[in-house]
TrEMBL record:
Record key words, sorted: Hydrolase, Metal-binding, Zinc
Protein name, entry field: Creatininase
Cofactor (UniProt): Zn(2+)
Entry annotated with the keyword rRNA-binding: no
Amino acid sequence: MSDAPAGSGRVAELTWPEIETALEETRTLLVPVGSTEQHGRHLPLGVDAYMPEAIGERVTERSPALLAPPVWYGVSPHHTFKPGTFTVSTETFQRYLFEICASAGEWGIENVLLLNGHYLAQDPELEIVVRRLRSEADLTAFHVPLVNVFADVAEEIRTGEVSFHASEFETSIMLALLPELVHMDRAERVDPPAESPPLTDYDALGENKVGWSLTARDMDELTPSGNIGDPTVATADKGEALVEAAVSDICLLVDDLAE
């Protein structure tokens, strides 16, 4: 935090007088929103929270914003076919997150960015939370799925044909951020079916033109290890490029909100 702009930092590590001072420089709060769920044999359960928290921290080193503690539990019923996954209902998740952000508005926060590490699966819930925060809590709120802010770079650097869950993108990011938690010797390629239903795709960057989801039974049938795609092609360099793309894009929005 010593190199961060005034007003930046982790909320959980600051005292209330320090928060009061920080609010003189920024009224923007980054909220890392993830889940605790299986990510194959090679990645830890906390991937979806580790990623947005680390990316959020890098954002605060460049742009004026506060970083909230991460939300560790999300909507993950499709991953309960492996042990260690926690899940809550859509209603519980939306209400909990709405109230977290609305309470920040009570002490001076005006802008909220929900940094979504459990992208694709949790997008519908967060879009509704953003709508409610804007209409009911008078907050300027945004949903930021990480895959959207690194998609262009991901398309350029990818070498695997499919990266759907716990594969090239997430594994690369974790190799860049927390390599000590990655077990590349356990990583294995799992190809999805050659065809998916019309207008859907088993790829994070695929042409998914309709909303769709998988159940725990579906996932159990698709993958013995828990991942879908090829994590063996992941590298720390790819991960650093993806993280930098996400941080740069998020900073554009944070800086604009500060003007």
